[in-house]
Amino acid sequence: MQKYRVPINSFQFGEVSPSTLSRIDSPIYAASAQRLENLVVRAEGGASKRSGLKNIYDFGITKSSSKRMQHRLFPFIFDDNERYIISVEDAKVRAFRIVSETSVTLVSTLTADTASAALPFDDDYLHQYTYAQSGDVMFICHPLIAIRMLTRTGLTSFEITTYSFDNRSDDKQTYQPYSTFHPTGMTLDPSATSGTGITLTTSAAYWDTSSPSKHIGSKIRYGYEEILITAVTNSTVATGNVVNDLTQKLAVLNPFRTISGSTTVEVTMLNHGFEGSESIVFSDASAVGNIATSNLNGTRSVTGIIDDNTFTFTAGGSANADADGGGFVKIATHAPSTNWDEQSFSAKRGYPAAVAFHENRLVFAGTTSEPDSLWFSKSSQFFNFDVGDGEDNSSINLIAATGDVNEIRYLVSDRDLQIFTASAELYVPTFLNQAITPTNAQIRKQTPFGCEFVQPTPLDGATVFVQKGSKVVREYLYTDSEDAYTSTAVSTIASHLIVDFKDIAVCNGAFEEAESYSVYVSTNGDCSVFGSNRAEKRAGWSRFTTQGSFESIVAIDDRLFASVWFDDTNLRLCEFKTTFNLDNAKSYTLSSNAVSVSSDFANSTVVHVLATTSAGLIDYLGTHTVTSGNISLASYDTTYATAEIGYSFPVTLTTNPIDAQIKTGPVTGEPRGVATVVVDLVDTKSASVNTINLISDSSITGKKEFRLLGYSRDPQVTVSQSEPLSFQLNGLTAELII
Amino acid sequence: MWSAIASLGFAMISAKGQRQAGAASLRSARAQAYDIGTSIKINEAKVLQEQGRRAEELRTAEASNIALFSTFSDASSSKSVQAFLNKQREIAGSDISTISFMGEAEKYRLQTEKRVVVEEGYARKTAANIGALTTMATGIYKFGETYSTGRAK
Predict the structure, then answer these.
(1) Do B101 and A252 touch (CB under 8 A)?
(2) Do A338 and A186 form a contact (C-beta atoms < 8 A)?
């Protein structure tokens, strides 16, 4: 019989997949565990119990098993003193103000927007919603709903409005993006150049014929003039009101060119869209080539098309010279033209799926009809998407040209504008000391994985995202050596913890740790926690469970909040608080060793009680059942001042099978036993090793030895808790008997 | 007597010289006007050439821009790219128009200069003729005066 002492000095690689059990050759094996439940991997390598969940608010929502998410939590941070948690629910929004370290209060509940219309938020799609916040305004986006703005109007008041674009001062132009949805060659034939109720006839089927038509309320542009659609007759005929007369001043000064001895006049009109023989009306033209104004202005016919920007007509008289002229010419026509387009965001074409602020522009991306397009507002004008003449500060319309359609799901503004789509990761590069402009904006495809409906979030210098299919978490990181972004998998060794994620929060300095953690909420109700420190090449996973299921999670600076379905019936807003050892917990003031908990727990609910005397001594009093809305501790001789009442949660650390290398090779698979285990604890009040409890009246810091029995081919050490009290394990040493 | 005859003869020679100088000025002015007419033609050609160069410059720049923008994104569908290209076309169109306008202005200037030069030629010829006539009249007057004075003596 031989004895070997096997140290496990840290758990810095966290919980690893059972598939890694044979990788005793890997350095990860000696610094990881088979299970890290409700434990946080500390920067130093040890593991400490996660904070309890302080019960803040009961949402009063009835759980539906058919819904992926019934609400989502968004952060809303105005400044250090004015921070909020936003709960977006089915047709409802609630805002909670973080008043202080101990107080979070509901300040606003909204069920209608400022126009008294019901909120369009739908819990069938909440997990797909994206948001971006700047100052007092949060933009909320989804392809099925018009962009909404949640605006903070006061310290404790919010309102919701539908995002609308700026208009020209005379309201005859809306500074919104337009796109060409019709195929090449399809013409639009308005029946008049002005007025209401004009008919709009397309040369092929175009208009939406559902009832009511989704085109109603949309605007199209004929040339550059807007027409509001008021009705759709059939797939080729619609009715509309001309917003601005279909008269345009030709962009080119002196657009006429005469030919000596001829009545033919060439006209330069950018993208005229004519096919020939259309009727047009000129006005304000001055004489050119000795053709009098009366022979130029008035109704003329297009006689020939020279190119996309030039056509000819016949003047009323001949020129006696080759000359350019005409001055500033206006042209009015309602002739069939291919030069027309439609507003990009509408019920028919869909609304943006993603939103972000980048370089002081508001950026939308990915509508139903244009899933791979991005629209940047004018610089510092978040409601103006006028492309103008393509000046540097003009709105930018960018469409990915990667050979396939990439459905944009998320935008992340970091050193570059990162774009996460359903099928690839792209980015819009930012240039050194140079702004993104219409003439230098570009999209570059980087990696081909695709992103699940979980908001990619910056963590430790990279952006972590869940690969489509929800089997892998990757970090999107720019590497100078490759001069490109890479998407390295960070969940390979803990693939069993990647289970259909639906929400994420990244918290810098959570759990009173210096580290940054990303916490993922899974549809199975658990959370998977990833901690990363690139500088020290350390990254590891653990899992959070509770007596219920996590629904959503949000980080507000270094504070982490979660909504949890306790007992599958009560959805509660909770905060991870280091001062709590229980979940769904509150601290109650006792009166004669009794307290009413009816507002938080139903009768017959079994709860755990941690009672504190007026001297500050804490006793774990086990479980109690709520009776008549009360918890009674009358059976105890000690008089308690306060009690933390809630649900306990398991704390479990199970090591990898203890293995060793002997002269004849590894002992893997050989029957062997763990005789003793020395654990290194910090401020621990409750711990047990393989069910053997630590017995102590006070918290323990230091090393404790446990003697174990039994042989196994995979001997493991499980450190857990019998009582919901403080716990931290730095490492352990196991004595292996072979 | 003989001096009077000689003086008259000199006056005739001088008048003839003045007339010939006037005719030469007119010929010179006509030659200069012809040169200006040539300049007008050259100017017209230059205008056409300049317009063609600007149009070609636009086409080349636009092709380069489209090629470049197409490496950035789907430029053919981008409204902001189209807006930029339209603006360049607009600028080029206005440039071409301006070139034409400047050419026309230069043409009018040259035509005016040509007309002035010819008119000046005629004016100089007329002035020379008048000068010759004056010279002759002066010569005849002096001859008459000298002759009558001589006879009186």
Answers:
(1) no
(2) yes
